[in-house]
Design brief:
- The structure is a single chain.
- It is built from five helices and four strands, in the order αααααββββ.
- By secondary structure, the chain is an alpha+beta fold.
- The chain folds into two domains: about 30 residues; about 100 residues, Beta-lactamase Inhibitory Protein, Chain:B, domain 1.
- The protein has a four-stranded antiparallel β-sheet.
- Strand 3 and strand 4 form a beta hairpin.
- The N and C termini lie far apart (about 55 Å).
- About 20% of the residues are buried.
Length: about 140
């Protein structure tokens, strides 16, 4: 085998190895969903920074915010560290048209397409939860 063929094969092997490594890294990065790493607990939420809150947001949304829960109950559960957004304002992110929502910042998750992520809790005219979701931009 001449040197040119050997170098050509080595280059192809090196490029192939680099492609496999890049694919493995991307697969690992996107297969580890960060928003369900921790179980929600109100005292942990209160003591956590936004990134740590992000790790328990799936548990919060799935298991702790039932439809009909009052705005006061939500505030008792999560604290007052939220932004209130009302229907008809420029900031309104709500396609369902509930009259009000609370935005709880849960960190920056650029790898997931959310430089700013929020637990968004929607309320009806009676101040009761209608739905909640993870959202961001």
């Amino acid at each position: 085998m001449n040197l040119r063929v050997l170098l050509s094969r080595m280059l192809i092997a090196a490029v192939g190895f680099a492609v496999v490594c890049a694919l493995a890294l991307v697969t690992f990065q996107y297969s580890t969903y960060p928003f369900d790493d921790r179980t929600f607990a109100s005292e942990d939420w209160a003591a956590s920074n936004s990134q740590e809150r992000g790790r328990m947001v799936s548990s919060l949304l799935d298991d702790h915010l039932p439809k009909g829960m009052t705005e006061q109950q939500v505030t008792t559960l999560l604290g007052e560290d939220f932004t209130v957004v009302k229907q008809g304002t420029r900031e309104w992110p709500n396609p369902f048209r509930e009259p009000k929502c609370h935005l709880y910042y849960v960190g920056s998750w650029g790898n997931w397409g959310m430089d700013s992520a929020f637990a968004v809790i929607f309320f009806d005219d009676n101040g009761q939860v209608t739905t909640s979701r993870l959202d961001g931009y």
